Amino acid sequence: MTTELKGRFGRFGGQFVPETLMTALQELNAAYDKVKSDESFQDELRYYLKNYVGRQTPLYFAERLTEYCGGAKIYLKREDLNHTGAHKINNALGQALLAKRMGKNKIVAETGAGQHGVATATACALLNLECIVYMGAEDVKRQALNVFRMELLGTKVVAVDKGSATLKDAVNEALRHWVTNIEDTHYILGSAMGPHPFPTIVRDFQRVIGDETRKQILQLENRLPNAVVACVGGGSNSIGMFYPFVEDEGVALYGVEAAGKGIETGMHAAAIQGGQTGVLHGAFMYLLQDDNGFVQEAHSISAGLDYPGVGPEHCHLHEIGRASYGTVSDEEALEGVKLLCRTEGILPALESAHAIYFAANLAKTMAPEDILVICLSGRGDKDVHTISAALGGDFA
Amino acid sequence: MSLLKDAILSVTAQGHKAFVPYIMAGDGGLDKLQSTILKLQQLGVTAIEVGIPFTDPVADGPTIERAGERALANGTTLRNVLETLSSFADELTVPLVAMTYLNPILAYGTEKFAQDAKACGIRGVIIPDMPLEESEIVHPALKDASIDLIQLVSLTSTPERIERLTKRSEGFIYAVTVNGITGARSSFALELDEHFKKIQTYTDTPVLAGFGISTPDHVKNFGAFCSGVIVGSKIVDSLALNDWTTIEDLVKASKTAAMK
Known about the structure:
Chain A: Tetramer of two alpha and two beta chains. The complex is a heterodimer. Chain A contains 15 helices and 14 strands. Chain A is α/β, with parallel strands linked by helices. Chain B contains twelve helices and nine strands. Chain B has a nine-stranded parallel sheet with strand order 5-4-3-2-1-9-8-7-6.
């Protein structure tokens, strides 16, 4: 059972932030507690999720992928069909509405792949909030399309060239911006990480994925799935998918971390599989670090998984053995992309392709009457340059 | 009993203000650490805050962040800073305060850190990413080693928090003078003197002002409503330029601050 006592999930989580942020976190916590049980807020959120985002998203039986794998029946939860092309909008919209209720009309956010940045820029345009997004300079290069989309939406994108110039450095800058502009600014954190109450807020806004899946599979199959698979960077799509199933012991939960060039090379982003416990960005969690406690760069072909830590609730689910965590390398993720393109005509995001590859192998070990659900967290249009370059093409 | 508090009170008893410079250990090489600390000591500073570099210094502005990056590039770690400090601990007459993010302490081991730090002459620790609520993770080990855990009080802290933080802070209270990160600034909010008066009503532990203090005038102005100042970015910049005149002027201002 996942506990939320004092912002902890078992021994993970907490509020390891500068004193200047403490009052803001407590305010956020109080404001969130209020809207959680406020029907008018929940109605407003539901209205936008249905009419603006396009929820609910389909739970689609992937017949040809199932046939190809020759094992369990595979369903895809189509978060790629959301407005803006990924699950990130669920949380961005929820938090933007929350910021409005708190009377804060300026938003700061970090982004890795740019999906959370685009989602936040979208929600801010919709709700007339001023928005600034910090993005690692490396990611700005890798995800030029998303940078342009954010700018079109009226958001200011700031490239961060410090440290490894990726997601972790973007989080550092977003935190600094928030500390400096605390009076009128809300930080829309994009993953189920960071200081309490963010991991809980993000999970609650993402649990719509798992809640819908549960309802849909019961309608379609009249029973719960045997296994659920989702990719894990910070871990927002996966915790959103897992959470409604945590109490269902018959449902195996699989999180897939990015093995990059291979765990043994040190060039990976698998915090649970290849890290030790430590503190970064406000939380006690598994973390890629050296013997001196210095945070190490994460490596993944997928910018959205390129983060050296992992959300505290995942750390806890791992420690108590409720969820299992595996890894998929860059090369395998590319196989996942090709597999889904060719069997189902769906171009998955590189992040989601990690889950596809892992699930395809898992399905092979399962019986035909078993059911496996994959969270297809985003679409891959943003990744075509990266995919083309990795496959030796010249489109890039 | 706190060596740090005593050191500050003995300065204010003479009608002066405490002056605590911040240096980034390993900026310019670890072999510079001894001469820098001993020279600051000679100038008559009250205590010296020794920064440990970290890969993700979220509470620091560009000046200290860059100094940290230079130190990291030199191979500076918590371990070799402590080793270097211990090599001249017997020459220290002023207390040292270590400023380090939490993760390097956790990786080093909290008990071992406290014991080794004590042997180096470290009498206080500031951990900018560890608020009071999370301090149990290191406080018992520090207490065993008689090392003060210094709390930061910010402008955004609510009155109840200010009271709690002030009462729990050991050695001195680090009053953050701006919303934001470390670094030089030209202006401060006007109601700062009220803020400081309020902090001091809760305790007899001295209050030092820090973040953004960069000129002799700042030193004098802040000195008028607290026990002294911490100067970081300006010292770091001056040391990088080997500009000791600027540092001497700042220290001198603390000795005339009470006159204002």
